[in-house]
Amino acid sequence: MRILVTAGPTREFFDTVRFISNPSSGKMGCLIAEEAAKSDHDVQLVLGPVGIDPPDGVAVTHVVSARDMYDASATAFETCDAAIFTAAVCDYRPARKLDHKLQKRAQDRHITLVPTQDIAASLGKIKQHRITIGFAMEDHDHHAHAEQKLKRKNCDAIVLNGPENVGSDDAVVEIHHADGSWTGPFSGSKRAIAQRIVRMADMLFAMNP
Predict the structure, then answer these.
(1) Is residue 105 part of a domain?
(2) Which residues pair with 61 in a beta bridge?
(3) Along the 209 residues of the chain, how does pLDDT read in single tens digits?
(4) 148 in any annotated domain
(5) Cβ atoms of 94 and 77 closer than 8 Å
(6) Which of 12, 17, 115, 193 is deepest in the core (most CB within 10 A)?
(7) CATH number for position 75
């Protein structure tokens, strides 16, 4: 099976040096890519700016912005059988990026933000026979938001996790399935969780007509 994995944050610049982002470490996505490669899958990893090295044995495309990640993911998805969207893509970007550093002044600054493209939802619309697994990072109304995301993104499963997992070597997750069921919570090392998610992708692919 050929699997696309997205991982890490994106950076959305409002001038030449400043940006908005999030604290995603990319650990979970890189571990999923590594475990998928160990299971003899052909892995295409689209990786945002992180402080860790990508795993060996996978094809890596480094990206910065949400637009970069969308373009790289859409290209890879064309030849993939499955996609696991772990990346913490910024939901918004500045409407305009200055071509110079904004100088500090003793006054308020106002930045207009516009939505970025939803990668999982966009590719979910054209998935056809392919398997897609998404991630939902939620800090309230956890189940309701994850259930909404599964439908909106047309995923086969959504992995629900919380802010407490960010940057940690361990995680607690629940999994929402397309049939409406929930499994978990599962707790343990992120490697163990990654192994579980790869096995789930294998099972979903095997069941796919």
Answers:
(1) no
(2) 46
(3) 999 999 999 999 999 999 999 999 999 999 999 999 999 999 999 999 999 999 999 999 999 999 999 999 999 999 999 999 999 999 999 999 999 998 988 899 899 999 999 999 999 999 999 999 999 999 999 999 999 999 999 999 999 999 999 989 999 999 999 999 999 999 999 999 999 999 999 999 999 86
(4) yes
(5) no
(6) 193
(7) 3.40.50.10300
In a domain, 106, yes or no: no
Helix axes 27-38, 190-207, angle to 10 degrees: 60
What is the domain count for the chain? 1
The verdict on residue 104 lying in a domain is no
Instruction: Output the pTM of the full model.
Output: 0.95
Is residue 48 within 8 A of residue 63, CB to CB? The reply is yes
Contact predicate 21/10, CB 8 Å: yes
According to DSSP, the β-strands at 82-85 and 131-137 are: parallel
Residue from 22, 154, 165, 208 carrying the catalytic annotation: 22
Structure tokens at 144: 């309701």
Whole-angstrom distance, CA of residue 153 vs CA of residue 65: 20
CA distances from 30 to 42, 60, 123 (A): 14, 10, 21
Is 154 a known active-site residue?
no
Q: What is the extent of the structural domain holding 16?
A: 2-98+111-207
